[in-house]
Predict the structure.
Amino acid sequence: MTIAVRVSPRGGRNAVEGVVADADGRAKIGVRLAAAPVDGEANDAVEATLARWLGVAAPEVEVTQGITTRSKVVTVDGDPVQLMRRLQALTAASEPT
């Protein structure tokens, strides 16, 4: 499964902010990070934060596009039906802001 993500580095803490709209109005999962975008630290933090949020092992989550940008595509390995249900449940109360 792939997930579109919008990252806010140096946000003071690692957390998923829910569904956010990017500059084009597209819905993405917002991820706030304490890490700075230096030497891949932010990408590692994105992977770890999303793994915890989705309840999967960290090696199952990988940033596959947007390595050097705030807009990223993350690939999550696992049962797509189960991951989709989990993603829908976690984002149900969240609307693009």
